[in-house]
Automatic annotation (TrEMBL):
Protein name stated in the entry: CCHC-type domain-containing protein
Gene Ontology terms, MF aspect: nucleic acid binding; zinc ion binding
Cited PROSITE patterns: ZF_CCHC (PS50158)
Taxonomic superkingdom: Eukaryota
InterPro entries: At4g02000-like, DUF4283, Znf_CCHC
Record-annotated CCHC-type domain positions: 224-238
A Pfam family annotated for this UniProt entry: DUF4283
Keywords, ordered alphabetically: Metal-binding, Zinc, Zinc-finger
Organism in which the protein naturally occurs: Cajanus cajan (Pigeon pea)
Amino acid sequence: MSQTMTFKEKVLGAPAMRPVVRDLIKEGVMTLDFEGEDRLLPKFSITAPTLKQLCEPWEQCLVIKLLGRDVGFLTLRDRLPALWKVQGGLELLDVSHGYFMVKFDLEADRERVMHGGPWMLFDHYLIVRPWSPEFVASATKVDSTLVWVRFPGLGVMFYDESVLLTIASAIGKPVKVDLNTLNMTRGRFARVCVEINLNEPVVGRFFLNGVWYNVEYEGLHLLCSSCGCYGHILRNCPHAARPVAKANGVGEKEVVE
């Protein structure tokens, strides 16, 4: 049945029946005004009760986006069930600008996807958010994401969950410590999941009991080595110092500092 139902039908939970067309402005459900009395700038508004009714079926959907890489609908549709290990079915809808909406057959699958991250696909982070009425694909910007951070060379006595989460709190919002770190099945680095703000420079190192330790970020491929922000590399950094041309004297060649 899931193969024959459309995305809308799966969200609504039943085959979509074409409703009777109504005049919503006459009914007072919608209003129409014009910006500056200009008919070329129509402005609509929907009453709160009607808007709530329209939104309710979609509130169980998730919005996803692969950070830093474009990926096609068919590729995602084929890869996501195995990545998430879903027990039921799911439907995917391309809503443009790299965003997709997902509807699950089982609430348990939705909860696991929401809280089981961070998820990675093709070595890039898959952003997962609950759908909201404010979501507009063309205007939405990803400001934060869950990432795995590593503390290489950290002393074994610091492989304590409380210690690691405290250190991670200086990097972002600590979420959890990797099980391999807690069990100490690997000792080359400690690994912690942190939610970071992508609009702020990332923390590159920290000092602990007389020693400086580096912080490594998994899966953040566009991380500037100059300003420490995500989304560009050094040569495109708006904050990096640019070469300044200066003339040493009359008739002399310009020297670039």
